[in-house]
Specification:
single chain, about 600 residues, mainly alpha, binds Sampatrilat-Asp, binds zinc ion
Length: about 600
């Protein structure tokens, strides 16, 4: 079953045609009916009586998974709206892609055209056009479908014995304390985030002037990414020692004539250098490494397990950039996980929890992105390991990782509350959470006719997001454990596990467990007995030198944190519920929040 529906979904994703879409929907409906029967049978047994722990575990996983009571095509409809969204060009031809032909039709997509403008443009009005045209093209069209989906997803969850769809989404973590634990982890890291936010705000104010208030939240369109989830694309505006060696080797990759294929081979060699498995013949024959020229494909990067223990693939519209080299390592880590748990019973062929599946690729990325690793694979020469180079490097990584945390935290905090409290003021609540935790506000006024969360793929595609938040904490715990196994002597941020068989052995042991043990047992194995708790200490240790540097930079230079004025909340709230003003030190005065009608 799994093979057929995966093949049909692959067929559509790599060749978007009506007949392939129909075939995919048919196979999904078929597999859903088939799955329902086996799920109902499995959960009808009173499995408490079954002594054998492995089969108890199997039933527990089945019960967590449940079956979406509605045909998946409801979700496909939202995905479809998202994938079909097109906008009119927002920049003069040639600025961000192929020179547009005069009177060009409105066929710009999120990838690559709009993402390129958000990443490269330094013109705030052009950025505003790109940000607004995407949010306006997708949000209102998606909103009515999303409202219906919330109702159906809650019904399906209740049929499976969950209170609502949010509880269903949290089930794979099997932890009643998950929500407070996640909130506590964010509280542990948010002081570092506020320091980084204050530093970046100062640089943005320097560049863009008063559209960036020196003590306020940041307008969402200036941060290099459509959702402000990563600020790595504005590193050139903020990196403190620009004359020092940068860690972006894209120019060198182009100079050396790197191709997408060679990028994949480089990633494969990273894993085999640890003693992990090479990619199979089928992988090289059937993967889609580049955007096809003769047909339309869904270009989001993804890794695929065809459930037959031999067919694994990656689909990626690879461009020759360092960012895509890291993404390839991320996707190939998913393949390593599939390969290593292939001998487990079918139900255990998944990550110990969804965050494990994400954390492996990013933990590996923490080694691959070090100047030292880039030198070892010949992409960086004569690196200098001085203080400024380390601060530049740590800041670049923080613009991706530390920045990402509040965004990843907000996505499911918002979605869980929609499932549990309803669909009123979805947009206002989205921006209230983004302002409180991310210190980001919309660049133009928003109303409830907008649906800005829908501008993010994972909301439109009903893909749970907590995995990426938990992965952000977990990947530093795993990185620290692998570095210890590799016998790395120095500070955590200079560690590269490349060619370490000891690190590879530990990683293979973790991956091979799949979901056969509760994830806290797997975490204890991964940390060689150190802990079974999620812990932000390794993350904070990794960024320690940067945290000190930021505190010195921010001292006496103004507010850390952001004040919210009635102007800010007027941008999105029909009324401004008194927000717990972000604790700004020194305590800045927050204007009384006026009711804005
Ligand atoms: C058949 C199938 O779907 N398979 C699953 C894998 C599996 O579950 O077996 C899969 O391939 N999912 C695709 C997804 C793609 C990406 C993504 O969506 N990233 C998030 C969050 C993020 C952001 C920064 C970062 O460094 C890491 C993650 C975003 O872009 O917001 C896009 C580029 C990177 C990861 C992925 O690989 O996780
Ligand atoms: Zn992933």
């Amino acid at each position: 079953m799994c093979f057929r529906v995966t093949s049909a979904t692959w067929g559509f994703s790599t060749n978007v045609t009506e007949s392939n879409r129909r075939r995919m929907l048919e196979e999904q409906a078929l597999s859903w009916k088939f799955g329902r029967v086996s799920w109902r049978k499995a959960t009808s047994l009173s499995w408490a009586r079954i002594a054998d722990p492995a089969s108890r575990r199997q039933l527990q996983i089945l019960a967590q998974e449940g079956r979406n009571a509605l045909a998946d095509d409801r979700f496909a409809e939202m995905k479809d709206t998202y994938a079909r969204a097109r906008v009119c060009p927002v920049s003069a031809p040639g600025v961000s892609g192929p020179a547009g032909v005069p009177g060009q039709s409105c066929d710009w997509r999120l990838e690559p055209e709009l993402s390129r403008v958000l990443a490269r443009s330094r013109d705030s009005s052009e950025l505003l056009r790109a940000w607004s045209s995407w949010h306006d093209a997708v949000g209102p069209a998606l909103r009515p479908k999303f409202v219906r989906y919330v109702q159906l997803a809650n019904e399906a969850a209740r049929l499976n014995g969950f209170r609502d769809a949010g509880e269903h989404m949290r089930a794979p973590y099997d932890d009643p304390e998950l929500e407070p634990e996640v909130t506590a982890l964010w509280a542990q890291v948010s002081p570092l985030y506020r320091q980084l936010h204050a530093y970046v705000r100062r640089q943005l104010h320097r560049h863009y002037g008063d559209i960036v208030r020196e003590d306020g939240p940041l307008p969402a369109h200036l941060l290099g990414n459509m959702w402000a989830q990563s600020w790595k694309n504005i590193a050139d505006l903020v990196v403190p020692f620009p004359d020092k060696q940068g860690a972006d080797v894209t120019p060198e990759m182009l100079r050396q004539g790197y191709t997408p294929l060679r990028m994949f081979q480089t990633a494969e060699e990273f894993f085999t250098s640890l003693g992990l498995k090479p990619m199979s013949m089928e992988f090289w024959r059937h993967s889609m490494l580049e955007r096809p020229v003769d047909r339309e494909a869904v270009c989001r990067a993804s890794a695929w397990d065809f459930c037959n223990r031999k067919d694994y693939r990656i689909k990626q519209c690879t461009e020759v950039t360092m960012e895509d080299l890291l993404t390839i390592h991320h996707e190939m880590a998913h393949i390593q996980y599939y390969l290593h748990y292939a001998d487990q019973p079918f139900i255990f062929r998944r990550g110990a929890n969804p965050a494990f599946h994400e954390a492996i690729g990013d933990a590996v990325g923490l080694s691959v992105s070090t100047p030292r690793h880039l030198q070892r694979i010949g992409l960086l020469n004569n690196i200098t390991d001085d203080y400024e180079t380390n601060i530049n490097y740590l800041l670049t990584v923080a613009l991706d990782k530390v920045v990402y945390l509040p965004f990843a935290y907000v996505v499911d905090q918002w979605r869980w509350r929609v499932f549990s409290e309803g669909v009123e003021n979805m947009n206002g609540r989205w921006w209230e959470l983004r302002m409180r935790h991310q210190g980001v506000i919309p660049p133009v006024p928003r109303t409830e006719r907008d649906f800005d969360p829908g501008a993010k793929y994972h909301v439109a595609a009903d893909t749970p997001y907590l995995r990426y938040f938990v992965s952000l904490v977990l990947q530093f715990q795993i990185h620290e454990a692998l570095c210890r196994a590799a016998g790395h002597p120095g500070p955590l941020h200079t560690c590269d596990i490349y060619r370490s068989r000891e690190a590879g052995r530990l990683l293979a042991e973790v991956l091979s467990l799949g979901a056969s043990r509760p994830w806290r047992d797997v975490l204890r194995v991964a940390t060689q007995g150190a802990t079974d708790r999620l812990d932000a200490r390794p993350l904070l240790e990794f960024f320690q030198p940067l945290a000190l540097w930021l505190r010195v930079q921010n001292r006496e230079r103004g507010v850390v944190g952001w004040t919210t004025t009635s102007h800010d909340t007027a941008l999105f709230a029909r009324w401004a519920r008194p927000l717990a003003a972000a604790a700004a030190a020194p305590a800045a005065t927050t204007l009384p929040l006026l009711a804005i009608v």
